[in-house]
Amino acid sequence: NINSQPFQRWRDRFSFVADAINKAEAETGEVKGHYLNVTAATCEDMMERAEYAKELGVRIVMHDFLTGGFTANTSLANWCRKNGMLLHIHRAMHAVIDRNPNH
User: What is the model's pTM?
Assistant: First the structure.
């Protein structure tokens, strides 16, 4: 997953995507969106990313459920509900569990 690698920091990526969404909406007159991945090493970092996405006007965030954890997912879901944001839950690592016949 793209998180915040040295060659592509999350804040720069979020800003770039928000600009692209705004440009596409202006050109087409249609509502556009993108799932910004707010998954991070800590809940605090995850929430900082969600807040920044909201500041940019992005309406959808994504969370990697299995890697982020149950508590982080619930916290983000509650925040999204309070802030009018859509939350997409990604199943990163799901195949590792499901495709193993011994699980």
Answer: 0.84
